Amino acid sequence: MEAAPPESAAPITPVLVAEHLERKLPGDPPVTLVTDIDLAIEPGKFTAIVGPSGCGKSSLLYLLGLIDRPTDGRLLLEGRDMMPLSGDERAQIRLRHFGFVFQFHFLLPEFTALDNVMMPIRRLGRLSLPGARERASDLLTSMGLGDKLHKPPDHLSGGERQRVAIARAMANNPLLVLGDEPTGNLDSTNSARVVELFRELAHEQGRAVVCVTHDPGIAEVADIRVSMLDGRICEVLRQT
Amino acid sequence: MFPRLGLLLHIAAMHLLVRRRQTLVATSGVAVGVGFFLAVSALMVGSQTDFVKTLIAAAPHIIISDELRSPSPQPGVREYGKTGAVELHGYKVRNEVRGIKDWQQILREIDAMPGAIGSPSLSGAVTLRQGGRDEPLGVVGIDPTIETRVSTISEKLRAGRLIDLERVQGGVIIGEDLAERLGLGMGDIVAATSARGVSRSLRIVGLFKKGQSGLGSGTGYMLLREAQSLLGRPFVINRLGVKLPDPYTADAVAKQLEARHGYKAESWQERSADFLGLLLTRNVIMYTVVSAILLVASFGIYTAVSNSVTDKRRDIAIMRSMGFSQGDLQFVFVVEGMALAVAGVIAGWLFGFALMTVLGSLEFPIQGEVRHLPLDRSTRQYLIAAAASLFAGIFAAWLPARKTALVDPVDILRGAV
Ligand SMILES: Nc1ncnc2c1ncn2[C@@H]1O[C@H](COP(=O)(O)OP(=O)(O)O)[C@@H](O)[C@H]1O
Ligand SMILES: [Mg+2]
Fold first, then answer.
1. Is residue B248 part of a domain?
2. In this complex, do B14 and A106 lie within 8 Å of one another by their Cβ atoms?
3. Which ipTM was obtained for this model?
4. How far is the CA of B360 from the centre of ligand 2 (A)?
5. Domain ranges of chain A
6. Are B378 and B395 members of one domain?
7. Where are the beta strands (DSSP E) in chain A?
8. pTM, rounded to two decimals
9. A119 contact residues in B (CB cutoff 8 A)
10. B333 alpha carbon to ligand 1 midpoint, in Å?
């Protein structure tokens, strides 16, 4: 099955475009994690990447999120080529435009929920400290964590932690939110809640949301479903 | 810039706070290092200053003596040169009359130098005889008015005053122990005979305390004029001391005087070259030992920061994926080391201060006098200790902090899933 290039037909300009992305691990023989990836990520859409375990979903997400570098191909963020950028420039792009949510919450254990969410804001440095505090506490409150602001991660439940992680991903108002099995460790109630949050981010806030998942619940509600097999995209399905 | 700096400092502070034990160990390591550095260097510098001061004060800054650096050539050699083979009969080796004869002129010249004081003296051997007992005495003839201005002899007197030499005919000041041996006391009279056969009755007008370095128990002071007559060498002196306003110019002035007058002029530096060399060696040893202490202290910082980096690999990966630069993370860990060093330095200052206070309060009774350890407690030592520790601490933290660059977020994130 071929992924039809959507941008010619669709009126929306994609925020992130991958062209012939390939990632090989050096070795003898080299291991191919992903290859021949052409993909356009659209704002306001919830994109799910599905496929069997080990097919390269996470590897693709790290490439899209500028955490890993492809061995071949190009990546364009709002039309700008990301390939020539240095490590620190890529870090700056991640800080400003990307928000990550992983299967594990990956909160910093020494910091309270509020401090964790404030971290990307303070690192970006566009808001004063009180401004950062206000933004972070607004985000947490909007996720129903208004009474847990000053709790460290190990005093929060799994679902609460994941919502803090989502708030942290949202901290700098990113263009893209990237999730790697964000519901993988949650029960069904909390999963549903996280999925609902992701949908809101896409549909109400107009962000591009990309989510690697095993969860059929997510795959069903996604606007675009990208299926992978053996490091390649085998199907791109637009759902209504 | 400021929110970012604040954030990085916040992260570093949290890392240190959650690892309290390690933080405490590293900090106390530095503190002990700094404390001992302060105590040891205060002792070393203090004793050195004390020692050099004593050295300078013990004797004139320059001593012009009646010796020549190289013996003047014998008349025979002068006449025929060194090379020719000549047979001489009835030739007498010439022995020069020792002593500085033109000393008045040299003295005038010295006194003309601003702040400089010349002190002439003649020394020679006499024998004291008292009740069938003979004791040798090296008499030194001096000018008491000058001598009180240039030397510390007055402080070493147990009884009497230097100036009494001028008031009492045949006055002499001898050591307490010699007086004891001869059964003499203040005001007693003793017979003295010089090598030239001159005899005089001397009256004891002063006594030196026991155990004075540089003042053998067999030294006695007399008026220059009387010593010259007792020793049978009128108008002659054999030593001219010079006290300078700045003791450290002694070397240069001595060379100048020697070049002009031919008499051997020895500066205090030349006289104590071996001691000064020893001091140098001592300083090299001290700074080696003390640097080693500080170095070992910085190992604690290396270990603490290295462990922190290893412990926080996951957090480093998370922060990298979030958009922190490599520089940010290195900075965090270097700051951790720096904070440990700063805390250690401050604690070390207090510890060092306490150590010095204890050392300074120790009392050593020597010859019936209570003495304290000579300590140099200047702020310079504190600053040196701080600078060295901070430098060592930052370097020790920088080494492991570089390892943050080796943390690949992809490896960590993948490994965790
Ligand atoms: N460092 C590595 N060395 C060898 N194989 C690897 C390495 N990292 C990932 N892989 C392999 O690459 C494939 C893709 O992994 P991944 O992207 O995590 O898959 P998914 O997220 O779809 O489960 C897997 O088969 C995995 O075993
Ligand atoms: Mg995966």
1. no
2. no
3. 0.90
4. 69
5. 16-238
6. yes
7. 16-25, 31-41, 46-50, 72-77, 80-81, 98-101, 176-180, 208-212, 224-229, 232-238
8. 0.75
9. 7, 319, 322
10. 31
